[in-house]
Each structure stands twice: as structure tokens, then as C-alpha cells.
Fold:
Amino acid sequence: MTGSSLNTFPVGYEYVNFVNWSKEISGNHILTCYPQNTDELLAVINWAHENKYCVRPVGIKHNWSPLVIANGEDNSNVVLIDLTRKFKNISINKVGEHGYVTAQTGVTMQALLTELEKKKLGFYATPAPGDLTLGGVLAIGGHGTCIPAKDEPLAEFASFGSVSNSVVSLKAVVWDQARSKYELKEFTRDNAESSAFLVHVGRAFISEVTLQVPRNRRLRCQSYVNVTAADLFSTASTTKNTFSHFLDLCGRVEVIWFPFTEKPWLKVWKQEDSFPKVSKPVNGPFNYPFSDNLPVKISDIIKKINNGHPELTPTLGKAQMELVSIGLGATVSADLWGWSKDLLLYVKPTTLRVTANGYAIITKRSNIQNVLHDFTKKYEDMVADYQRKNSFPMNGPIEIRVTGLDSAKESAVANAIDPDLSAIRPVESHPEWDVAIWLDILTMPDTPDANKFYSEMEKWIFSHYAGDYATVRVEWSKGWGYTSQAAWQDKTVLEENIPRSFNAGAGNNDSWNHACNVLNKYDPHNVFSSPLTKAVFKQKS
Structure:
């Protein structure tokens, strides 16, 4: 594009270098602006359309998959619209003990949860980092870990699904055919077209949403480092320490399992309104300082691994787990009690940058143990196989979380619609499937053989969790579509597995094609598309 067209650019702009959180996606000298209000936002988007630019909303850039820009490629026709400066208004409407919050999408989750807390409102499951924008979380179906504990009812206005499932209405920038320009349009959750926008994978531009929010609760988070992986992932009924056992007790469980160690870091949260005397009360988030700042011992091992000593990977895994065990004791953080925000936000921006694959296994609750047993056995077998070849592609932990599904039944809106593109959209032909098991394997960027390992694991995951047993959907924000060289490249995953995973069992409600039709209708010029979404959704350039 010629510089002369910029003479008509409607707001102030600058050129910035884009780098994502894991530093794997970057682009130099990209046109960026900071609209002050909706009028300026629409002016920029309509200018972009007229001048054949793409528009990409940008927040904190805490995303692994290249949904915003293509890595290292020509981004000269991209306008980044940064909403984090001006699009962060919050207004709260309390209705009895619960309520609604209307927020612009540039607000961070930490800022949003802090304001809700002041009104005695709060979500029971959210992503762990606080430095995510609300818009970023909703675009990819951001989630925490939460299913009902045994006999736990669903609180009013709560959801066991992703944050997107709490949306009751949203405002999106859409093409207005009659006026031949992009305008702001409101969609309520009972509008059939809203389902395409609730998780839109970067193919839409949402400026504001209203969410339902339950009353705030105090949570207790207990960490265990004395339960073996063999027990946690066992299918035998002889052990009491299975993952499912903790789910029945608490409903909120996360496992962080470092490679070449026997005992994972197991975290369980339960609702506990009155103060347990043995717990440590906390009044702010990010209560695991030892996981945010790497000690010299660990950073030295990482340096050596990166400099041609992959065989030190087992030492790294053990050192990381040792750090957790000692850190929990030293900071007295193995048993914490406080308001939901303070216990659910625990990943700081300073945490070690790692890359991660991500899949949601949709199945019924009684299958959870089998799913995890098979997955961890496959992982261990693969790690051992690579080790025999002196290859150590996985130097970060496995992370396992479990949520409910994004069921419209949890919405306060009558006749609400399920999100079309949510990884945890219910599968109509299998109403008994009621949980999603989120599987992530982490490693440091550029580790030799990592993509090969991920590709092998992905093929196994898609083939193993299939049929009447389970189905698999990719976690939009993470790594998927692996070839032995790179993520987001495998055409079978992009063009077949992903669409099929949304259509399989959808009955008359083909959510994939429905979402494509709606998103194409409201953005016929592909202004809101990136190279990756064009590949996945087979959009014409």
C-alpha cells in the first residue's frame, strides 16, 4: 500500500513491532492505532476496507496460535487496533445476589474481576493469567477448570463452561449491506446468529459484551505434591487418589506434571465460605511467587539444554518440581483461602515462556479416568522412545484441567443458543457427554524434535478419542495442526479434522457451516481475517 493512502487515515497512528507472549510470533513495522471511541473505531475499520487492509484487534498478545498476524511474513496490509488504552469501560448491574457486567473488550481479566469483587460478584472458573483482555478470552473460548463436585448444584448465573458461555449480549462490528459500510450491531444470546460470535477465533470484531455473573464465593486451594502420577491416572479402584476422586470431592482440579518426575503438582479448589483455620488467608492474586521467577539453578540448566545438552532435561524436570515442593512450603502457599479472583489468577507475566499444544476431549464424566490413563501412558511411552534416541523434545510439564460444556441451558437468557465454534460446544448426538478434559503438553520454543513429537501425539489423540467414546476439538489459542516441522500446517487437521469435530453429531444444527455462513455474511470482505483463519475456514483471499 502506498504511503499516500495513509493521508486519509482517520486517527493518529504509529508503526509497532508485534511479539506474542511465547516470542514465537513476530512482525515488524505494523500500522497500529488506538481509537478513543466507537466512532473512531468504525472510521478505522471502514478506512481499512476501502484501502484493502485487514484489521486485527490486539490486546496483551498472550496467545500461541497466529490468529492475529502471520509469523514473520509481510504484514504491510494489516492495521492493528489496540483496545487496551481506551476500550475498557465497565458497568455493573446488580440483581439480587448476582448480576450483569457490561464491559468493553480491551479490559483485562484482572481489572474486570477486581471490579466485580467490589460488588460481591465473581466467576468460579477463569483462565489463570490476569493479563488477558476480555476480548482475547472470548475470541478463543478461554476457560479455567471447574465441574460440579458431587451433589453440587449450579449457582444462579454461574457456568461450568468457558467465559463465553456467560455472554448474554454482545456488540460486533459488521458489514451493513444497505449502507455499504461497517456498523455496530448488537446480538442477544437468543438470536440464532449470536452463536457465531460467542467464540469467533478472530474472525469478528467485538467491542463490548454483557456477561451474567454469579455472587462471589470464597475458595480454598490446596496443593499436593505427595500423590503419585501412577495413582492419579490409575484406572484401578484400589487407589483413593485418582483424579476422578478429587473431582468428586471438589469439582475443580488441575495437574501440572513435570517430565521425569513421579509426583505431579496437584491443585484442588473447593468452595468454602467460612475460614478453615489451617489455611492461609490471601487478599490478592498470584500467590505462587516461586513459579513466576526462575532461580539461577533452573535458568542455568535451561541454558545448557539450549546449548547442546538435551540429556539434562530429566534434571530440569526434577529441579522444577523440587522448586514447587520447596516453594509451597517456604511461601506457606499449599493451603490458601480467599475470594475467587485471588485463587483463580496465578500466572504472572514473568512466568517462564513456553509453547503448548492444546486439545479438549469431550466425553462423559465416567470416562475421565480412562481418558487420562491412556493419555499419560501414551505420553510416557513416547518420551521413553525418544529418550532411547537421545532426544528430549518435551521439557515442560503436562497440564490437565476439566470443565463442563458451553451449554446454553446455563444462560439466564431464555432460548439462548450454544456457541458454534467453542471447543466445548455440546455434541447433540451424545447428550451423555458432559465434560471436557483439557490436555496441554508444554515445552520451550525451538526444542529439537518438539514438532515431530507433537505431530505424533496429535495423530494418536484424534484417532484414539473417537467413535461413541469421545471426540476431540483443538484448543484455539494453543498449538495444533502439527507437521514434523511446524504447528498450524497439517492440512488434514485444518481442513478435515477441525470442521468434522464441530459437525459430527450436530444433527440438523451444523454449527461449523452455520458459523461460516454468519461470519461470511457480516464480514464478506474478509477484513477481520488472518492467514490462519483463511486456511482453517477455507476463505478466499
